[in-house]
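Supplementary Methods S3. Complex input for the zinc ion-bound model.
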Amino acid sequence: MQSCEFMEPMLSAYLDGELAKDDKARVEAHLAACAHCRELVDAMQNDDRALLSWARTLAAPADMPMRVLNALGLSRQEVQSRRLAYVYFASLALGVALVLAAVSLPAASAAAILFHFALAVVRALFALPWSVHAEWLVVLGALSLIILVLSLTCLRRALHWTRSEVVWR
Amino acid sequence: MEQADLELIRRARHGDPQAIETIVRNYQSFVYRTAYGILQNVADAEDATQEAFIRAFRSLGRLREDRTFPTWLARIAVRISLDMVQAKARRAQDPTEEIHGSVDGGEDAASLRIDLERALAKLSPEHRTVIVLRAVQGLEYDEIAQVLDIPIGTVRSRLHHARMQLRTYLSGERGDS
Ligand SMILES: [Zn+2]
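Predicted complex, serialized as structure tokens:
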């Protein structure tokens, strides 16, 4: 029979099933004859079991996923605020691009065309009194007055609503 | 690793928060127990766990084989924990002073728990690591060799010494044989 000092270093690997065939056979032969080594293997096995059941009582904090996401800058709030920032900057960029296009592109002298159109309308309005009969002017004046009154009423209503809304809050 | 796990890793690589959340939930016990086994302290183990996940997700692009994710994660966790042990040892003197564990509850279970933690604390960090990877996480020797970046022969002898040491401390604590 081989000595215990020679066998002992193999017992741990034997326990783990990590021994080559012939070594395993040698250990088994020794264990069959040596109570001391048998006890040692049993004790190591018990230690392993105790370690396992001890470890099973250990639990990571429940908020670990949140902590990790926060640290990575991937939490919901952060993602949302980043999305808002994207929208804001995208709108800003779009606005700037539109202004630049309107100013610089020759095709988009849309602003100039609009300006000329408005000018033509104003001119036509000034020319109106000379081009129609006096009774039509009266009708036109009355219509304008009605529209003006209506507009003012609507405006007052609108102002009143917004004010009461502010008070409500 | 199952197909669903591999899919989660693929999504996490693209920064999908839900995939990351699920992976952390699935592996947090694995990482935390490894860290606690080495560090023997709740606060440190929590920090190490968090740090391990952060580092893993930041460098997920460098993981070649998604299949090896668990050992790769264990490797990161072990390295962080051992670094923390070293940093602590440089600052403090006695690593056995902090023994955590609820003493209430079943008396035998509690005292066994304290015995175990005390005995583990007396082991060297390297011995603690190898014994936790084997007895708690059930890793094979070749996996432990990968995690610790050491030859399999070293895994075998280190594990033998760690178990013999633990045996000595435990039988000393318990007063048996
Ligand atoms: Zn023997």
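Chain A has two domains: 4-56, 75-164. The pocket of zinc ion is lined by residues A 4, 7, 30, 34, 36-37 (CB under 6 Å).
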